[in-house]
Amino acid sequence: MYLVTGANGQLGNELRLLLKDNALYVDKDQLDITDTEAVKGFVSANRFDAIINCAAYTAVDKAEGDEKLAGDINARGPENLAKTGIPLIHISTDYVFDGTNCRPYVETDAANPQSVYGRTKLAGEQAVLENASAAVIIRTAWLYSEFGNNFVKTMRRLGAEKAQLNVVFDQVGTPTYAADLAAAVVHILPRLRPGMKEIFHFSNEGVCSWYDFAVEIMKLSGLDCRINPIESKDYPTPARRPFYSVLNKTKIKQTFNIEINHWKESLQSCLKHLS
User: Fold this and answer.
1) Residue 74: how many CA atoms within 13 Å on its side-chain side?
2) Residues in a beta bridge with 139
3) What are phi and psi of 131, to 5 degrees?
4) Catalytic annotation on 105?
5) Contact partners, residue 9, CB within 8 Å, separation at least 6
6) CA 223 to each of CA 62, 110, 201, 243, 266: distance values in angstroms, whole numbers, following the listed order
7) Which of 117, 144, 177, 211 is catalytic?
8) What is the reported pTM?
9) What strands, in cross-sheet order, belong to the sheet with 135-140?
10) Average pLDDT for runs of 10 along the chain of length 275
């Protein structure tokens, strides 16, 4: 039996579809991972083969003014889970990088987060590596699915309401379909080895800007909405985004023999479910 935390989010909902009755699904109302004693009591009352931590404070801009809560959820929570001694798969982010690379980031590249969100997620990674008996940390990026709020659903909604939209073209990365990430997590679960503590990167294949992503969403959704490319300076946000955060997936593909879909192919799959 597995424990999935943050189970009401995008990835948690995708894991429900795959793991079905083989996992116990909790969100903050059932288990507050920032509460050390609550975590200890919960895991001692149940027998889990592994924990998948999908819980996170992901409101990137709001985190700039809410560092305490972001740190509790993104760092202290994972630390509490790691200290249970149960093998852990922990989800992290491309925001641990500063976005100044000109080639895809590998797992050993120096982290240099530029936002509260990125800093607290990096602290979570470090806490997991220091305290877990066995852990796989998966950094991902630009997550979307048919569940929850995300860029794809927002673009489809706005595209149906407006004749044109402005989207930044100078932030480059790769979208990740949560269903593909969930499938990778389920594939890795039985391959967690005692003492294993590794960081891996996972997103879909290919590279695009948010502008390119938006154009493809409109095209595949059959929406007649013009997407105008703008620079990040013309769309200021409280949190600084990485300008380039393409992730190199060689390590996860080779280690676990995983095949990864191109982002356009996965976007098409998601839009079919949404329709």
Assistant:
1) 24
2) 92, 201
3) -115, -15
4) no
5) 54, 55, 56, 58, 147, 148
6) 31, 41, 33, 28, 19
7) 117
8) 0.97
9) 23-26, 2-5, 50-53, 88-93, 135-140, 197-201
10) 97 98 97 97 95 97 97 98 98 98 97 98 98 98 97 98 98 98 98 96 98 98 98 95 97 98 98 94
